[in-house]
Amino acid sequence: MNNNHNPERRQMLRLLAVTGATAGIVTLSPPARAAKCEHDGTPLQFTPKTQPDPKPLENELDKYPKCPYCGMDRKQFHRSRHLVHYQDDLVDATCSLHCAALSLAINLDRGPKVIYAADFGAKDDPKPLMNVDDATYLIGSKLPGVMTKQSKIAFASKQTAETVKAEQGGELGNFDAALQAAYQSMASDTLMIRKKRAEKRQHSAG
Fold it and tell me: Where are the domains of the chain?
């Protein structure tokens, strides 16, 4: 996925970032502490803090076990995980589309080479990754979401996505539709997660 070939996607990311749709990076689990980076400083502290990796799918879950934005275990959430491979070979491997959307908005001047998502319809465990350009997303079904109330689930097979839609509801769309939905729900999802984290802290303190 050469970002130069997706000017509309790039413009959408800039617009949503400017309008503040990407606020909030929290989860129910304790956040992972990012490694020290020699480039730390606004805004380059958001640069993926890993070495360039020209082959990110090789031993992917071993190399990228935790989501850098929320600290969630990507092996545990292998069904919803995403991975952004930027043109400079830096990699952001996330637990969900929610956190992948944060990566894409923060790294506006770092074009994505390929974006991958887990194929929810695959029988393998963990679910294999696929290029999101080849994916069909089921948006807003009754299936639970990760980091969001509104689930956005990727399928390699459109037919499988249609079958799940018939059982679970929702709407089918491509990656851009799912990404836009992720940004549109970011504020409400952030409020939901903050509330649950506060309740968890109160329960632990009690």
Answer: 3-20+42-198
